[in-house]
Every structure is written in C-alpha cells, then in structure tokens.
Structure prediction request, 185 residues.
Amino acid sequence: MTSAAALEAILFVADAPVSSKRLSTVLGIPLSEVESELGALSHRLESPHRGLCLEKVAGGWRLYTRGELSGYVESFVTRGPIRKLSAAAQEVLAVIAYRQPVSRNQINDIRGVDSSSPLRTLEKTGLIEVVGRLQVPGYPVLYGTTDLLLEKLGLDSLHNLPPLSDLVPAPKVVDELAAATFVSG
Prediction:
C-alpha cells in the first residue's frame, strides 16, 4: 500500500475536511510529502472521466462530487431537490458572515425585522453557532459562522468571501433610488 492510496482512502471516508497536518500524522509521512501527494491526487482527479474533485475548504482537504454531476447525485441521494434556506435565513447568514461576532439585536437592526426564527434554523443546520456574549447588560449571545458553512460554500476562510463593495450599491445610487421611489406630489 502506498501513501497516495492511503491518503485517497482517508479523504474518501472523511465526513469533514482533513488538514494536511492531520494527514501527515496519520500517514506517518512528512508534511511536504502530503502536500505533494495532494497535488498529484488533485491532478489525477482533473480528468473528465472522474466523478470526484479535491478541494481545500475550511482549513482542510475533502473529496467532492464534480459540480457537473451534482444533479445525478442529488437525484440518487435525496430523490428530490435539496432543501434550501429561506430568503430570511440567507439574509441573516450573510449578516453574520460579514459582521461576526454579532448579536441578535444587531442583526435585527441591520435587517429591520425580527431574526429569531432564521437564527434558530441556522443554528439547527449547524451553519452558525454561539461564539460568545456581548459585555453589556443582559449579556446577549454573539453569533458566528462555523466551518460547516465554509465547507458548504467551498471556501477555505471567510477572507475568501467577495467584498461587500461588490455586492452593495454605492451610497449615491441608494440615494438616487430612494429619491426616485418617494416622488413628492
């Protein structure tokens, strides 16, 4: 058995990303050799005849189904579409991802509506977690994202999120839209 085969087998059965350091420890080989084997495995999986790809996510490595095959896998596994997050939950998740650590009241202020239900949903799915408490009267909990979110988004860290400036219109545009919406009469 080669270290390359053992590495592939470990990644195949792993239910979460596995760090290079952990692979080095388990396989008993130097970190540099692990990195080399990961590169070779990734290259082998690039063939259009393979159904998997190797991705670095949440500080580790994981095998995934190739994107173009996801429809087949989804149909096989779920026999229907995968449940998606509601628009409210997506909004709350975005606020937490970009502003964490953040309290429920801070999220409510940003959104302008109560966020209790989406927060419960996101906690149940494991995409967010309590990361501390705000040091003000009442000590409200602070929320942050989990490694599971990074994994689901295919990101290695939150630093890989697109900048907010790419997603939000400039203040001048917002003012122009507001002025056009509220025509005096």
User: Anything to note?
Assistant: The longest strand covers residues 52-57.
